[in-house]
Design goal:
This protein is mainly beta. Helices cover 11% and strands 42% of the residues. A hairpin with a 2-residue loop joins strand 18 and strand 19. Helix 2 packs across helix 5.
Length: 450
């Protein structure tokens, strides 16, 4: 079982605020604290509700949610008896911290005053008047958000609303100086993983399952990487561990389906190859020529122009603007600092062997609002790149690369994806990018004649 802890912080994505009716129904409250319930001093008083948004960036897609718990650290409270506080899912996701009782962003009206929400799978807690507030039954609500592919869990906290009495709970907000006092959502979930090691001698491979529920029945499915996917059951086991794969040489996709007491969940797809242990192909070329071949394949498969797909030897300046009029482009470069730039520019011989890395970087532009920042758009900047991963991986994985335009000199079945990474929200505001890592496995023979 894995745990994802999401504390609210004052950044471009986190959101929280309180709203109140009555004379303040059209006035935003300051962000110093959250308040839920009724509050009065010498008059009818006001009803307070609180809005919170927890980003789901760190939750793997299609995870099996087991539980979710919200913690609010007490700042003050006055309760009558043991009142109940409910936390419903907000359905108007365009709300901002400028929200009021009447308007979700300080300008546009809620469909229902006090916040648009649904009581389906809402969480609740009976509060006794002392200590922090812990809402431990939000698992189904978070699962709803995940199933709807929402980028965040947006909550509306509602307490007792009785005119003329004080019956409320006040909590620290994301503006709290001490991070330990900020609102926090903790999600527990299952998302099994599967990795494969090629035997290297033509006898198949071994898959290793990890992260499944104790006692779960795990089934391993495999499909050839070429042609339409046709997954077949290749092995099974109970709990985590190894599964032998009796497969012929070639390239494959694999995943594990795990069925446990908490439900059914599948891992992400993993690409792997099975080889006969033969010596790697040896070619005479230079790194720029290989990069050119990768670029040529991407341009052909994805219908990209020279200005939107090109190669370089150094890591690019990721803050520079894209080609004129473009908001999406690819760059191809060596992985990390394992290459001697001067050596490759000079075309001299090189001693690198075995596995060499290539990085395909996907760039996209994030449209900002007139004020220069849009929290919701900024949050989606990184997630919006993920749909581009599949076509890039499909264009390269398990394919020949033609060297110097000669179809007889290829890297046959030797390029494979090994992962990808995205920048954090704080790293990228206007520009967003994703690095896709590929491995090229063969012996290098860098000739001065190339």
């Amino acid at each position: 079982m894995a745990t994802l802890e999401i504390p609210l912080a004052e950044d471009a994505v986190a959101k929280d605020c309180r709203i109140s009716n009555g004379s303040n129904a059209d006035s935003p409250n300051d962000g110093s604290q959250l308040m839920i319930g009724s509050f009065t001093i010498g008059g009818p008083g006001s009803f307070y509700r609180s809005l919170l948004s927890f980003p789901l960036t760190g939750l793997p897609a299609n995870s099996l949610i087991v539980s979710a718990e919200l913690t609010l650290v007490r700042l003050a409270s006055t309760v009558i008896g043991t009142p109940s506080f409910a936390f419903q899912r907000l359905t108007q996701l365009g709300w901002t911290e400028a929200a009021t009782w009447n308007r979700y962003d300080g300008t546009n009206l809620w469909s229902s005053v006090g916040g648009d929400s649904t009581a389906v799978n809402a969480g609740s807690v009976v509060y006794g008047g002392s200590g922090n507030m812990t809402v431990s039954d939000l698992g189904d609500l978070v699962a709803d958000c995940a199933s709807l592919s929402l980028a965040s869990v947006d909550l509306l906290g509602i307490g007792p609303e009785n005119s003329g009495t004080s019956n409320y709970f006040a909590a620290y907000s994301s503006a709290a100086v001490d991070p330990a006092n900020r609102p926090k959502l903790v999600i527990t979930y299952y998302k099994p993983t599967i990795s494969v090691v090629d035997n290297g001698d033509g006898t198949g491979a071994v898959a290793t399952i990890a992260g499944s529920e104790s006692g779960a029945a795990n089934s391993v499915y495999v499909a050839p990487a070429t042609g339409p996917p046709a997954f077949e059951l290749e092995g099974s086991r109970t709990d985590d561990g190894a599964v032998a794969l009796d497969l012929a040489n070639g390239s494959y996709w694999i995943y594990v389906q795990s069925v446990g007491a908490s439900g059914t969940v599948s891992s992400t797809l993993v690409f792997f190859t099975v080889s006969g242990g033969e010596a790697p192909t040896r070619i005479a070329t230079t790194l720029p020529v290989v990069l050119q071949a990768v670029v040529a394949r991407l341009r052909d498969q994805l219908s990209l122009s020279e200005s939107t797909c090109y190669w370089m030897l150094d890591r690019e300046d990721e803050d520079r603007p894209p080609p004129t009029g473009k908001n999406f482009y690819l760059t191809v470069r060596p992985d990390g600092g394992e290459f001697d730039r001067g050596l490759f520019e000079g075309g001299g011989p090189d001693q690198l062997t075995d596995t060499t890395g290539i990085v395909v970087t996907i760039h996209t532009h994030t449209q900002l609002d007139r004020g220069g920042r849009d929290k919701q758009v900024l949050f989606h900047a990184t997630a919006g790149l993920l749909p581009y991963l599949k076509p890039v991986m499909k264009a390269l994985a398990g394919h020949d690369l033609v060297i110097n335009g000669n179809g007889d000199v290829c890297l046959r079945e030797l390029i494979r994806p090994v992962g990808y990474s995205t920048p954090t929200r704080k790293q990228k505001e206007r520009w967003s990018h994703t690095d896709v890592y590929f491995a090229l496995t063969f012996d290098w023979d860098m000739s001065e004649d190339e």
